[in-house]
Design brief:
single chain, 237 residues, alpha/beta, Rossmann fold, 35% helix, 16% strand, globular
């Protein structure tokens, strides 16, 4: 069975995938959605440990590791530590790079300046408004506002530690149009296959069907999943 490990980005939680998950399950896949821990002393490497635990807890051979936004860094390092377990890596609007990459080196100076200013002397970076994730529909704005949470600044300042094992795993980068940050370039520089989706940064909320179809048609999946069922049914929103 194909298992998708869906890892949410900063300020989000495992709930970020709840519109995509039913579509993948109906198509015959298994889905795991770990929730990254928050806390004063929590950083990127703590989150990597949590994802590695999720990887090692499943016995499935067809494992696809998916990271949205900040979690692109997390899943790359987690896969580097368990390369024999991961069949494919997918970055959904994901920040990612070679060994030593992190938000400090990848994000524009204005982004990190905003992160530091909003955290002040504390450890938690308050969540931005839903509009900054591209979510503008009133119902979705209210839904997202109720769920977004502060994120530990340490996760933005730590850099990845990669042995190079991750570079032997096939990868796909899903990037959205119109582009906000150079996610397509990040994927291209890693040698990943690129797929463009029409939608905002939080595309898994606004266009869950597009994300699910992109995941279910990865070229490395050994067992084709039930796409006709996916296309006939609407996700529960």
């Amino acid at each position: 069975m194909t298992t998708f490990v869906l890892v949410h980005g900063a300020w989000h939680g495992s709930w970020a995938w709840e519109r995509v998950t039913p579509l993948l399950v109906r198509a015959g896949a298994r889905v795991i959605t770990p929730s990254l821990t928050l806390g004063r002393d929590v950083g990127l490497h703590h989150h990597v440990d949590e994802v590695v635990t999720s990887i090692r807890a499943t016995a499935d051979d067809e494992l696809v590791l998916v990271g949205h936004s900040y979690a692109g860094l997390v899943v790359r390092q987690a896969a580097d530590r368990s390369p024999e377990r991961v069949n494919h890596i997918v970055l959904v609007e994901g920040w990612a790079g070679a060994d030593g990459a992190g938000m400090e080196s990848l994000a524009p100076d204005r982004f990190m300046a905003g992160v530091r200013a909003s955290a002040g002397d504390g450890w938690s970076v308050p969540a931005p408004a839903p509009a900054l994730f591209g979510i503008t529909e009133p119902g979705d704005v209210r839904w997202l506002e109720q769920r977004l949470r502060g994120h530990p600044i340490r996760s933005f300042t730590e850099a990845t530690r990669l042995s190079g094992a991750v570079d032997r795993i096939p990868g796909t980068g899903l990037h959205c149009r119109p582009e906000t940050f150079p996610f397509a370039r990040f994927a291209a520089e890693l040698g990943y296959r690129q797929v463009a989706l029409d939608g905002p940064h939080d595309v898994m909320l606004s266009h869950p069907r597009s994300v699910a179809e992109a995941l279910l048609t990865l070229p490395t999946l050994p067992n084709p999943l039930n796409l006709p069922t996916l296309r006939k049914e609407k996700p529960k929103l």
